[in-house]
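Predict structure. Chain length: 235.
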Amino acid sequence: MIMQRHIKIFCRVVMLLTLTAGVSAQSAHKTDLQTVLHQMDANAAKFQSARAEFVWEQYQKVVDETDTQKGTVYYRRNGKDIEMIANVREPAASDLLYKDGKVSMFNHKLNQVTQKETGKNRADVEGYLVLGFGGSGQDLLKSYDVTYQGEENIGEIHTGKLELIPKSARVKAYFPSILLWIDLDRGISVQQKLMQGEGDYRLARYSGIRLNEKISSDIFQLKTDSKTEFVTPRG
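Prediction complete.
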């Protein structure tokens, strides 16, 4: 009888420990807003550069059409500044460069560069550019009201989904809300969806992401020639 009682007690203890271990494991893997922001902070603290393949989709509801662009994007931290260039390959070659507070669009077919100083909007532009690529979670909270939308797999990548509501009225006029899918292992964005009102949106998907590799300064230069026309729009 004593032996049977010890066995029963032992079994109950094992069951209790098993259940407790299960609860602890679930808690350790539980994802919430603070977990995602912490991962972004950790990535931002060591961020120097990023390279990725992208697919950008612009959807217009009124005509029910999607325009798609594909190419490669590069980011790097240069001192306190962020530089970015997107080399679009499809459907037509073009480059979008952000450097020294200036946005430049190079249309290869026209051999024309359109340039625009960001001026007083520089902080907003840079905040948008580094969404999930080198931007910290704490900086995100300064510019957006952020809510956690749960976990979701993007391909084979396990992500935490965030909804951002811009605090800046100027940014909110363009993008009333933004969705980010943050890689829970690396703290970087693998997908972004920028809602533009009236059912329109811009979806950006990134793959083959490589972090903190050395990127030549030549990458962040437009390959213009003596015949290239430079245009600065007014207003």
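Summary: Residues 2-29 form the longest helix (28 residues).
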